[in-house]
Write a structure and sequence with these properties.
The complex is a heterodimer of chains A (240) and B (228). Chain A has seven helices and no strands. Chain A has 240 residues and is mostly helical. Chain A has one domain. In chain A, helix 2 packs antiparallel against helix 7, helix 3 runs antiparallel to helix 4 and helix 3 packs parallel to helix 7. The longest helix of chain A has 49 residues. Chain A is globular, with a radius of gyration of 21 Å. The two termini of chain A are 22 Å apart. Chain B is an all-alpha fold. Chain B has one domain. The longest helix of chain B is centred in the middle third of the chain and has 30 residues. Chain B is globular and about 55 Å long. Classes of the chains: A mainly alpha (240), B mainly alpha (228). The interface between A and B is medium-sized, with 29 and 26 residues.
Chain lengths: 240, 228
């Protein structure tokens, strides 16, 4: 069934606070990027390549926050059975997949220039890739289920199991690599870089909240439209 | 919902599935031939010299089992769906999770048979020291297959009821199998190369932990997957 969108411009569909918050989030993001770029000097070994850090690391952090939201909302759905929790979990999963995709792509580019390889079989990389695949699977599954209740229940189960699995993957890969060899990446960070990083972490958090609210709001509207369409169809049938 | 009653239900499902399979043997024949074929193809793809190295052949053996297994999980549920048998099963009084446990056990028996065939064929074709690896290899296979089947049966309970079941099952299942595959391959490789470093027991312990974690998680989550 095609969801019918309500007529009218964006302004009537999205509530004001989302538009206002969106403007703030985007401006804050731009400000954070500019700040990070201007106050941090080019790094000794990595040069300007280091600037990837300001997008890569916050994207990774905030994607974890999104998946945690999926996890919590999924448990909440199975417990309470409220449809909105399912819609919220799906919106958070979408934001999470976008951010993880960004993390992997940027990390690869960074790794190519510093480690000399696009990919390393390190626990963090591997578990991020698995996380990405689990939630791509989660979103694909949703696309194939027509019944609302079934979609919500099944995806909640997958969201919870998938999230827990990633913790297991992380430790098992760590152990696997630990037996073979240890992979380390320099984590030391001078204070000159931390301000830009912190600002960007918040910038990504705000962007994530924006993405999730827009997607969640759209999902609620779509569901409402579907329900109305059904009601009208039923009312039409009653008149005939 | 008394416990002995549930166990009878589990046994009934297990017995029914095994008898159905035994009478036709279509699933087993298909999976067994496919597995043997994959083992042979890996021999060509990697070259005989490389496959005979224990570390590589362990990976080949487990990937073969994964590919053969993923075809059978959907089949086990489709049999129930085709004639509306699943609805009837769910309507019977008692815990729906017994259906899951019964199916898992039946699939374990099924995949153990396929696994035995794979290890024999791989042993012959790649010249693996299967006999020297000893009873621990059997333990690794049983533990690996139990974990694999638990997750496979759980995800197939969903995927088999959807249009794109062939694509969806591996898409959902394979990322979940990463830790199990790691532990199973490492343990098998260690045993096939004589386990000079003594790594096998660690990986076996890890397999036990994974089996328990996944069994408990899927057992409780199954209720949400089956109830309509």
């Amino acid at each position: 069934m095609e969801a019918q969108r309500s007529t009218g411009g964006t302004a009537t569909v999205l509530p004001r606070w989302i538009l206002g918050f969106g403007a703030f989030a985007i401006l804050f993001f731009m400000a954070s990027q500019v700040t990070a770029f201007t106050i941090s000097p080019a790094e000794r070994d990595m040069g300007n390549l280091q600037k990837i850090l300001y997008v890569h690391v916050p994207a990774a952090w905030i994607s974890m926050v999104s998946y945690f939201l999926v996890f919590v909302a999924s448990i909440g759905y199975l417990w309470r059975g409220r449809e909105r929790l399912d819609l919220f979990a799906a919106s958070a999963a979408e934001a999470g997949v976008v951010l993880t995709g960004l993390t992997l792509a940027l990390g690869s580019i960074w790794g190519r220039s510093t480690w000399g390889t696009w990919w390393e079989w390190d626990p963090r990389l591997t578990s991020t890739a698995v996380l990405f695949l689990v939630f791509v699977g989660y979103l694909s599954l949703r696309g194939f289920i027509e019944d609302d209740v079934r979609r919500a229940r099944w995806s909640a189960a997958i969201g919870i199991l998938g999230f827990l699995n990633v913790i297991i993957v992380y430790y098992s890969v760590q152990w696997w690599r630990g037996i073979h060899q240890t992979q380390s990446s320099p984590e030391t960070l001078s204070p000159m870089y931390t301000l830009g990083l912190r600002m960007n972490a918040f910038a990504f958090l705000f962007l994530m909240i924006l993405f999730v609210s827009v997607r969640y709001h759209t999902a609620v509207l779509e569901r409402g439209a579907e329900a109305r369409e059904e009601e009208e169809a039923l009312a039409g049938a009653a008149h005939v | 919902m008394s416990r002995p009653g549930e166990w009878t239900r589990v046994r009934a499902i297990l017995w029914k599935d095994l008898v159905t399979e035994w009478r036709t043997r279509t699933s087993f024949n298909a999976a067994a031939f496919l597995a043997a074929l994959i083992v042979l193809l890996f021999g060509f793809a990697l070259g005989p010299d490389r496959v005979t190295a224990g570390a590589v052949s362990a990976g080949v053996v487990w990937m073969t089992l994964l590919f053969a297994g993923v075809l059978t999980f959907n089949r086990a549920w489709e049999r129930e769906i085709e004639n509306g048998a699943l609805e009837a099963l769910v309507l019977y009084p008692g815990d729906v999770r017994s259906i899951f446990v019964g199916k898992v056990l039946a699939n374990v028996v099924f995949l153990l048979a396929v696994g035995a065939l794979v290890i024999v064929v791989a042993g012959i074709l790649y010249g693996l020291p299967v006999r020297e690896a000893g009873p621990l290899l059997v333990v690794v296979f049983v533990l690996g297959i139990v974990g694999f089947v638990t997750l496979g049966t759980f995800y197939a309970a969903m995927a088999s009821r959807l249009r794109a079941r062939e694509v969806l099952l591996p898409l959902l299942l394979f990322p979940m199998l990463v830790p199990l595959l790691l532990a199973a391959v490492e343990a098998t490789a260690a045993l096939l190369t004589g386990d000079l470093l003594g790594n096998a027991p660690q990986w076996i312990r890890l397999l036990i932990v994974f089996d328990v974690v996944f069994a408990v998680a899927t057992y409780f989550a199954f209720e949400f997957v089956i109830e309509e």
